[in-house]
Structure formats: C-alpha cells, structure tokens
Amino acid sequence: MCALAFTTTTSLAADLRGFISEGGAGVLQYQFCSGETLGRELFPIEDKTLNRSLAAGVNAVRSIMLHRYRPLYVEVRGVRGKTNVTVNQFQRALGTVESCKSLPRDIQSNIRLHASGQAPVWRLVATDASALLELPDKVSMKLPAAAFKSAGSDRVAKGAPQQTYEMQSIDGTAISVGVNPQMCTDGRSETAYGARVSLQVQKLTLQGCAARF
Q: Which residue, 34, 64, 98, 206, shows the most beta carbons closer than 10 Å to its own?
C-alpha cells in the first residue's frame, strides 16, 4: 500500500510519495500516490533542495532508464500546497518502480537515517529507538540512537549543510558518519539518492549514499 503523508500546517515538511514527469518549459510536475492509485492532478514542483539534488537525481536516473520518458517514481520531503509542491529534500528516485501498486517497502516511516554502500557492502539504519551498523564480513555494531536525533528532522530537510555524527558503538569503537546533501548514485542502477555518506570506523573509511537523512 502506498503511504502518503499530508502536512497539517503550511510550514511543516512531510514525506511525499509519487511520480515526477516533465511539463512545459522543463517544469517538473508531481503526481501523488493515494493507496494503489495515481492521482490525476499534476502539481508543479518548486525545487528548494540543496545543490539542486532533486533535478540532478531525476536526470541521473532518466539517463540510464530503459523507458526514460515515462513518469519516474521519486520520494521527497516537502510541503504539498493547493496548487504546487515545495520540495526541501530529495530522498531517492527509482526507475524500476512503474506504478503505485508496486511501491518499495524497504524503508519504514520511523527510520531517521538509512545509508548504505557497495564494494564493500555496508548499511546503517537508525530510528528513534535503535541504530545498527552492518559492516563487511558480517560484522554488526549497535550504535546509540540518540546520536542521530537530528537526522530526519524538519530542520535538516529544509536545507541544512553537511551533518557529522560522532559517537562510540556499544563496545566502545569510535565511529564518525558524514552526510552531505548532494545527489548520489553508482551510475549503473536506475536509482539515485539524496545524500553522499562517508563512514569512518577507526582506520576504515567507507563511502555510500543515503535515502533517509
């Protein structure tokens, strides 16, 4: 089921799910998913993402999509108005999602930070209650959830610069996570993300992307 979060005030950003297409003069337009149905109304987008990461992400995915001219599924954080959408944060774009009936379910609504990387494979997921870092060779570390309390907040969504989270794992390992709100992609898969991530675990440095931050 496609979840769509509506704002209760004009100033509070919310997670928005739907499809982007290009209108006249290159203006990006958003169609919202309501359940498994795609809304008919097209909302012009006011792109206020830092470093224009929304436009960069859409262009990056379209350049390698098999069907590059169909509407593109995009997750953002912003404000839905009566006649337009203001986007403050680009989260991710997935060229493999074709309809509201097949939306991804891999990221739950309570996740504040969701970052991962390839070669080597790693993943970091943080919520209000827990944070887990999965490293190569099947090494897992529990991190203090409080260290990521600003991640996923409205302040961050409205254009905060790079965030750095310094902490120690439960076993005392020093860890630093840098999140830079710039479009991030591997250039091969039909996916783009809203932030670049640098992870430092003692002397090990890993790079990746974040879909929630």
A: 206
Length of the chain, please?
213
Strand partners for 197: 179, 208
This model's pTM is above 0.85: yes
Cα dihedral 31/62/196/100 (nearest 10): 30
pLDDT tens sequence across 134-166: 999 889 999 999 999 989 877 666 656 789 999
Q: Report the distance separating Cα 93 and Cα 213, nearest Å.
A: 15
- Averaged pLDDT, 165-185: 95
Using CA atoms of 66, 67, 73, 76 in order, give the dihedral in degrees to the nearest 10.
70
